[in-house]
């Protein structure tokens, strides 16, 4: 009900005042009498009372139409929201797939780099072993030459000693024949005295035994060191050999794969070539990376199917329930 203005502002007008104002304005506008206005009002009310069922049905139909339009708008909004969610999920899955492919490419590059480094280390180890073997051969040759020089010097010293003794004997015989006879007698006594000869022999034997013992200890220590070093080198060479064999087999496999791909790429379509490359990339993946890539591809396929048929991944149940609700309404 309308409200008045002025001093009656904020108060509800009565029906009499509203009717009076309406009839007065009607009289002023149409120029008819008050009775004519009242008659017209009563006729209008009677017509409205007679048309009430029709008006009610029209209002109900209009209301139903508005409700259906509102429900259609809500349905379209939900479908649009589901499509946006599906598109966002597809973008996220594609981004995840790009990240996985980049990680895979990086890991393959790292594996190739590690393989090259391992081959280089193996070659360096082989070169070091060859150099050390050459050095040992040179050392053995130098030791042999040193021993030969020592033996030669020892022989020359013995010869020089013998020459000096002969020269001394000759000088004694020339300048002092009596001393020469005394020296000869002493030499004979010395040679004939078994105690002196046994003592000299014992001293020489002890010296030889001590020298042999020192040489044996040095040879034993050097033999232990050489044996330990050779065992370590054999183990290291065995490990490097196994690693080189593994890397060679992997390298041959990669070369064969590349050659097969290059041979097939000339006669295949781009889509088939891409599919073959993806299959071979999957063969080189680790199990966990395979599972992640397959999950990403499955989700991408679901999202594409959802976008094609017009319902969402997580919202299909809600949409089905909503459509059932619309049917009930």
Give an overview of the whole structure.
There is one protein chain. This protein has helices at 15-30, 34-50, 52-175, 177-192, 194-265, 270-283, 287-309, 316-328. By secondary structure, it is mainly α. α3 packs across α4 (177-192) and α3 runs antiparallel to α7 (287-309).
Topology:
Elements: H1 15-30, H2 34-50, H3 52-175, H4 177-192, H5 194-265, H6 270-283, H7 287-309, H8 316-328
Helix pairs in contact: 3-4, 3-5, 3-7, 5-6
Largest sheet: none
Give helix and strand order, one letter per element, not per position. HHHHHHHH
Percentage of β-strand residues: under 5%
The class by helix and strand makeup works out as mainly alpha
Features:
rod-shaped, 8 helices, disordered C terminus, 329 residues
In short:
By secondary structure, the chain is an all-alpha fold. It is built from 8 helices and no strands.
């Amino acid at each position: 009900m309308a409200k008045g203005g002025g001093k009656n502002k904020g108060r509800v007008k009565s029906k009499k005042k509203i009717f009076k104002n309406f009839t007065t304005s009607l009289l002023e506008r149409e120029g008819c009498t008050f009775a004519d206005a009242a008659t017209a009002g009563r006729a209008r009310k009677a017509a409205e009372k007679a048309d009430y069922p029709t008006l009610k049905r029209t209002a109900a139909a209009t209301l139903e139409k508005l409700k259906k339009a509102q429900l259609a708008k809500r349905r379209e909004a939900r479908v649009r929201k589901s499509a946006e969610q599906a598109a966002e999920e597809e973008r996220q899955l594609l981004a995840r797939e790009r990240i996985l492919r980049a990680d895979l490419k990086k890991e393959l590059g790292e594996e190739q780099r590690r393989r090259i480094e391992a081959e280089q280390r193996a070659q360096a180890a082989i070169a070091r072993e060859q150099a050390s073997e050459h050095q040992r051969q040179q050392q053995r040759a130098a030791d042999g030459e040193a021993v030969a020089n020592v033996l030669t010097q020892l022989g020359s010293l013995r010869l020089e000693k013998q020459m000096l003794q002969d020269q001394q004997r000759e000088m004694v015989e020339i300048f002092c024949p009596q001393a020469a006879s005394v020296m000869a007698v002493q030499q004979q006594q010395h040679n004939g005295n078994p105690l002196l000869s046994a003592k000299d022999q014992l001293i020489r034997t002890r010296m030889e035994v001590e020298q042999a013992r020192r040489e044996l200890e040095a040879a034993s220590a050097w033999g232990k060191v050489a044996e330990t070093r050779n065992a370590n080198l054999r183990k290291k060479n065995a490990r490097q050999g196994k690693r080189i064999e593994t890397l060679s087999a992997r390298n041959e496999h990669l070369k064969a794969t590349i050659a097969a791909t290059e041979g097939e790429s000339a006669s295949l379509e781009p889509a088939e070539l891409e599919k073959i490359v993806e299959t071979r990339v999957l063969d080189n993946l680790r199990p966990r990376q395979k599972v992640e890539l397959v999950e990403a591809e499955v989700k991408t396929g679901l999202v594409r199917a959802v976008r094609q048929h017009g319902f969402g991944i997580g919202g299909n149940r809600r949409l089905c329930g909503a459509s059932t609700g619309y049917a009930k309404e």
